[in-house]
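quick one, two chains, predict together pls
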Amino acid sequence: MSIDLSSGPQCPIPLQHREKIILGHGSGGTLSQELISSVFLKYLNNPLLEQNDDSAQFELINKNSRIAITTDSHIVSPIFFPGGDIGKLAVCGTVNDLAMSGAIPRYLTAGFILEEGLEISILERILYSMAEAAKEADILIAAGDTKVVERGKADQIFITTSGIGEIPYSHGHISGNNAQPGDAVIISGSIGDHGIAVLAARNNLLGEIDVRSDVSPLNKMLQGILEEGAEIHVLRDPTRGGLATTLNEIACQSRVTIHIEESQIPIQPAVKAACEILGFDPMYVANEGKVVIICSHNQSEKIVAKLKAHPYGVDSVVIGRVDNDHPGKVILHNIYGTTRLVTRLSGELLPRIC
Amino acid sequence: MSIDLSSGPQCPIPLQHREKIILGHGSGGTLSQELISSVFLKYLNNPLLEQNDDSAQFELINKNSRIAITTDSHIVSPIFFPGGDIGKLAVCGTVNDLAMSGAIPRYLTAGFILEEGLEISILERILYSMAEAAKEADILIAAGDTKVVERGKADQIFITTSGIGEIPYSHGHISGNNAQPGDAVIISGSIGDHGIAVLAARNNLLGEIDVRSDVSPLNKMLQGILEEGAEIHVLRDPTRGGLATTLNEIACQSRVTIHIEESQIPIQPAVKAACEILGFDPMYVANEGKVVIICSHNQSEKIVAKLKAHPYGVDSVVIGRVDNDHPGKVILHNIYGTTRLVTRLSGELLPRIC
């Protein structure tokens, strides 16, 4: 037997610099391995990813928890915007969905769909953001996958993240079904920041509109409150469809009426101005770092104080109350004493906001 | 207070027929709800999806299992091919990745990226396939997400699935690191079927090439073997990059040599003929319903017999052995007694195969 053993790839695969994503990076062969070892693992490495098997394996920290899972695909355009990028969004979006069940986020998976020709330096910036956000949220990126499609068959990069969290039984049953007449409705800060920041970046309005996305992982702020035993009925982040749609979902699921005091809703002046010029209602503009909390009235003061002590909750405020006079409806009260019905978002306000 | 309560959406949202996906279906508002309730839930409904919260919640069946998680993005083109479609692939791909760790697949999440203009009847066919595959694999689709991008910014539909499984401790430690000198190498059937079927569908060669994809969930077949206490060291499905790349990964991870008898590798005549005409080496062509099993030599006969008794394993055969003479290398022996080194796939053989 005579074989030239110097041919064939060495083990481990040597690094090689390539400036742009090519179809071969999605082949599952040498180029895929090279991209993983020289780019992805540079930012995301951890013992679970190093297992290098078809799945990552772990043990639950608390064997007596329930498990929460969720998934979100991210297609935001443009991929960089003031306050964040698609990488930060992909981590925070899934972390927040877990946190909205009272879960402690533990593990994240990320599936990347890359367009041929994407600059690798752009991918690196996004991976850096993901790593930073995952570190802040204390979640481990445990598994990943990369596919490449031909130029013109995707838009730079799409990232689908899935998350697994543990819900301690002590966190109670938090659900959109659980709002009760008499409850208070809290929002953790100003609305519309994310949607307007993305819109400004997309339309070259950055000189005129100075708004940063609020994209943030909210799990630590919420854990602090839940660990103190606060009795929270509903947690939900008003993302696509904005605050109006989220409140309608809760009113519908819990079969209650939600009454909101319009004057209490925090809105940044720059967001308000942008919405007025562009003809948007900020109630429908997406948020990525805010939470609606519904809790019994007598807990609301304590919870708002606790939120205000966290950087992501400084503008927290009670904006309304739950009743049962018109189940399934959301009613907005203005300072003149008149009211209007607020429905879900119909049609599309701003596509590709997340 | 006077409000016209007849305006605004009813609860639950009424169905409304639309023939094509529009941007508003990704808005998170009324149209998204409509798409979910009238299309997605028609095929995928189950108690977990009905929870209708930001995450799905469940308890582990066996609190003493380890947990396996994995993710895969699916971008196959064309989306329908002989033997399957992107929906079946998206479920089986993730189910099989779980099964390759010895896990019992439990829950699946699915993130959909839809191109504006996709016919809803096409989406329905894909969802139907997903539901059928999930039923066969006995996995529950627990969470989903849908985004829509403008026409020309994606290619009909991309699906990213993530899976969670439970690994009973009795299944031992199955890993690509675990091949040992003296072990036997088994393949569960003919290679190259999936890649050639997709290629034929893509290039209108269906009249000339009559090959069906092998896309299948392999978990039940493998569970049957593991539950009987077979001592398996490595399980891996030779998908992108084909059998050659998979064997190289294992040789590299386990620091062993893998010797393969070329004449023992099962290849369908139609696949062989197509590869000869097109200049492909079937060793690099993707499979979606085959598994490489590496086990101690004295277990191999029993395992092959058990595989042969299952519809997905009738052509199972021992194709080689593990040694330590040239660690990290895969060596192919032909019937004339000569040998050649088989490396990983370099470059891209067939893009968008999964």
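Chain B has nine helices and 14 strands.
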